[in-house]
Amino acid sequence: MAKAGSITTSGLLSLKDPVRKFVVSVILALALALFIARAPTVYTGKIPLIGDYVPLNLNAVYLNIFGQILAVTAALYIWARLRGRPRFRGSYPAFFRLTFLLYILLLAFLALQFFIVLAPEGQCDRLPNFDCLWANDFGDVRIVHCMSGTEEINKQMPFYLRQQILQSWAMALCPLVAPGLLLHAWIHVRQNQS
């Protein structure tokens, strides 16, 4: 049994604080989305428990695109929650330094997958697809996953936005916006440590 004040009850491993729980859950979700982006055939797209009732077919592309947007939204939420607190206990700076670093790395790798494994239909031979940042394909262009064995998944893929260049820059800026918010939150935690 751990004594009060030990590392397991009030230190780095303590997850009693809801913000800490939220950060850890976002990190786990980012790791899962990154895994599915790299191994798209392991996930069928059905959401556990509610998959039969909700007609969503989430696949690797949806998780890649919306995972980044949700990660930036989560970073904004974390920033707001931490900025609203006046004081923090001793282990908070170390915990958030470690978890924010992991958060940023996972988000950067997930964002990179948008350019490494996804491409406009018929352009998988031109990977990595950083051309989307400077060129704009007009019309309805389907996003395809360019790893082998994804033919069945590619039949259900979404289309790029009409302004493909805007979508590409949004995916490139996600791993820059979230670290800015998390760094600002970590500095606030560090300055207000009790």
Explain this structure.
Helices cover 55% and strands 3% of the residues. It has six helices and two strands. It has a two-stranded antiparallel ribbon. Helix 2 runs antiparallel to helix 3, helix 2 runs parallel beside helix 4 and helix 3 packs antiparallel against helix 4. The relative contact order is 0.16.
Query: In percent terms, what proportion of residues is strand?
Result: under 5%
The oligomeric state of the chains shown is single chain
* Gyration radius from CA atoms, angstroms: 19 Å
Summed over residues and divided by their number, the pLDDT gives a mean of: 79
Total E-strand runs: 2
Q: What shape does the CA trace take?
A: elongated
Spatial strand sequence of the major β-sheet: 1-2
Individual helix count? 6
In whole angstroms, the N-to-C terminal distance is: 26 Å
Question: Which class do the helix and strand fractions yield?
Answer: mainly alpha
Q: Largest sheet, described in full?
A: 2 strands, antiparallel
Low-confidence stretches: 4-10
The share of residues in helices is 40-55%
List SSEs in N-to-C order.
HHHHEEHH
Features:
single chain; 194 residues; mainly alpha; two-stranded antiparallel sheet; 3% strand; elongated
What's the arrangement of secondary structure elements?
Elements: H1 7-10, H2 18-38, H3 60-83, H4 92-116, E1 118-120, E2 143-145, H5 151-154, H6 164-191
Antiparallel strand pairs: 1-2
Helix pairs in contact: 2-3, 2-4, 3-4, 3-6, 4-6
